[in-house]
């Protein structure tokens, strides 16, 4: 009974803190084109006192909002802040009573530290909500017209991070690799070593949804044997579904 009473008091205190302090909303910006931001995300940004934003967010677009902008972007070997520091900055701002938006590229809960931030902020006693964004790993399918699943060809798909080349490669028909620009050659070699067909097609797509979106077509075999440097950010799709798009099958035969 005593423990239950203490638990109830703790819950009441937490609720009082959440009412007293500001709140944090994690917003997924989408793959890059501002037109793909959701209506809910737009509303949250319009009300925000402070916007903590990543590296790949359109700066001109951000200028339309009145909230204070705080850059906390991270690129490979170039972090403006470490993740722990970002967590604390967001929490401190909310504790000051601000309406805070944490704006991230893609979707906040897919390879974006969103789960870590939500947990940290909740432990800090502030109210947290999450507005979904279009993940770049999903958008790449629509914007290249390469399906990630296709009847008779691909019934399963996995999303992986290629941040390191020792990543686990699930045995799915299609693989979508995030952050693999510098490791794709080793990932391709590993995929072949684990039994994937060396002729499996690969699509590498730079700046998904932006005016300069660029597609590079290859195969696992070709990537494993080359040292070509691809521009980043880049999303990589591996699988037979790539050949299904009109015109791509003929292109791949020439590689």
From TrEMBL:
Gene Ontology annotations of biological process type: methylation; siroheme biosynthetic process
EC number(s) stated in the UniProt entry for this protein: 2.1.1.107
Key word Methyltransferase present: yes
SUPFAM superfamilies per record: Tetrapyrrole methylase
InterPro entries: 4pyrrol_Mease, 4pyrrol_Methylase_sf, 4pyrrole_Mease_sub1, 4pyrrole_Mease_sub2, CobA/CysG_C, Siro_Cobalamin_biosynth
Pathway membership: Porphyrin-containing compound metabolism; siroheme biosynthesis; precorrin-2 from uroporphyrinogen III: step 1/1
Highest taxon in the source lineage: Bacteria
GO molecular function: uroporphyrin-III C-methyltransferase activity
UniProt record similarity statement: Belongs to the precorrin methyltransferase family.
Entry protein name: uroporphyrinogen-III C-methyltransferase
Organism placement in taxonomy: Bacteria, Pseudomonadati, Bacteroidota, Bacteroidia, Bacteroidales
């Amino acid at each position: 009974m005593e423990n239950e009473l203490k638990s109830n008091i703790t819950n009441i205190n937490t609720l009082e803190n959440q009412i007293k302090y500001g709140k944090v909303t994690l917003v997924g910006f989408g793959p890059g084109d501002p037109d793909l931001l959701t209506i809910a995300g737009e509303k949250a940004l319009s009300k925000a006192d402070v916007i903590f934003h990543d590296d790949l967010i359109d700066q001109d677009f951000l200028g339309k909002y009145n909230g204070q902008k705080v850059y906390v972007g991270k690129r490979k070997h170039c972090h403006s802040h470490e993740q722990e520091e970002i967590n604390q900055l967001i929490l401190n701002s909310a504790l000051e009573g601000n309406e805070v938006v944490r704006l991230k590229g893609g979707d906040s809960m897919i390879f974006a530290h969103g789960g870590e931030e939500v947990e940290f902020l909740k432990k800090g006693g502030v109210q947290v909500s999450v507005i979904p964004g279009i993940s770049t790993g999903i958008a790449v399918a629509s914007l290249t017209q390469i399906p990630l699943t296709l009847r008779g060809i691909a019934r399963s798909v996995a999303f992986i991070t290629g941040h390191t080349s020792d990543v686990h490669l699930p045995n799915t028909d299609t693989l979508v690799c995030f952050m693999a620009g510098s490791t794709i050659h080793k990932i391709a070699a590993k995929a072949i070593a684990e039994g994937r067909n060396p002729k499996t097609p690969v699509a590498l797509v730079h700046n998904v949804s932006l005016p300069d979106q660029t597609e590079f077509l290859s195969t696992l075999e070709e990537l494993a044997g080359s040292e070509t440097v691809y521009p980043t950010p880049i999303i990589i799709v591996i699988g037979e579904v790539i050949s299904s798009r009109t015109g791509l099958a003929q292109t791949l035969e020439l590689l």
